[in-house]
Amino acid sequence: MPWVSIGLTVTWVFYALCKKQLPIGPNQGFLLEVLILFVPALAYVGWLSSQDQNHFDLSMTHNTWLLLGCGLITAVPLLLYANGAKGLQLTSIAIMQYIAPTLIFLVAVFVFDEEFGQARIIAFPMIWAALIIYSVSMFRNMRRA
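Above: the chain's sequence. Below: its structure in token form.
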């Protein structure tokens, strides 16, 4: 049984549902997430410092600036995504979540010559056929309403 995959799916569904139902805006939601994760992150940095494995120090070295920049580069797209996704239905977001993995898969196969075995030949079209069937029925229901 693929417990990790099932666990990720279930936790992301609850995360998306809770995020969608919060009576706060996407920027405030992002701030709330950062504040919730701040204490565990600070504890982890403290533990790394005690083990002499910390690359984040207060002397503002090259590594410190790179780590701060990575935080900014990560936060900006997340804020843009959160602001854009707030007005969409969860079904629309779910369908769009297949685009990035599909593009990564196509780059792996056609650019990096990754093996495209029999299991993938069967699974890939089945996934997209299911998405097309789901999308068509969703669009038909939207037109009726």
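The chain has six helices and no strands.
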